Structure formats: structure tokens, C-alpha cells
Amino acid sequence: MARFSLLFVAGALTLLVSACGGSNKTVVVNRLVSQQQSLTDLKRALDAGAITQTEYDQQVQKAMAGK
């Protein structure tokens, strides 16, 4: 009986520890933002000094291309 209890505890611990391992799942969050909203946000960032004119121009081109 003691041997069975020991094996049961060992098995339970093995399952418990293996469940604690990391996960290989990747979470992807897609957020759809309209082109107009992207352009508005970029203009705000430019006006606030968060991005340069060059960065603004590059990002506007990407937004207009749908990237």
C-alpha cells in the first residue's frame, strides 16, 4: 500500500510539474484601424513632437499603401 501511495504521489507531482512548464502558444492581436484614424494619429504625433517630419512622411506613405 505504501508503494502504491509513493507511486501515486510521484505521478501526481510529475503531472503537476510538467503542467507548470511554459507554453509554446503565441497570442496575436489584430486591431483594425481605419486609414483615416491612422493618419489622424500620425498628425497628432507629429504635432506633439513625438515623431519627426521624415518619420511622419514615411508612415503616411505606409498608411496610404495599406501597410
Shape descriptor reads elongated
The unreliable regions are none
Mean pLDDT: 76
User: How far apart are the first and last residues' alpha carbons, in Å?
Assistant: 66 Å
Q: Given the structure, what is the number of helices?
A: 3
- Oligomeric form of this entry? single chain
- Secondary structural class: mainly alpha
What does this structure look like?
Helix content is 66%, strand content 0%. It has 3 helices and no strands. Helix 2 (35-47) packs antiparallel against helix 3 (53-65).
Primary descriptors:
single chain; 67 residues; mainly alpha; 66% helix; 0% strand
What would you say about this model in short?
Helices cover 66% and strands 0% of the residues. It is an all-alpha fold.
What layout of secondary structure does this protein have?
Blueprint: H1 2-19, H2 35-47, H3 53-65
Helix pairs in contact: 2-3
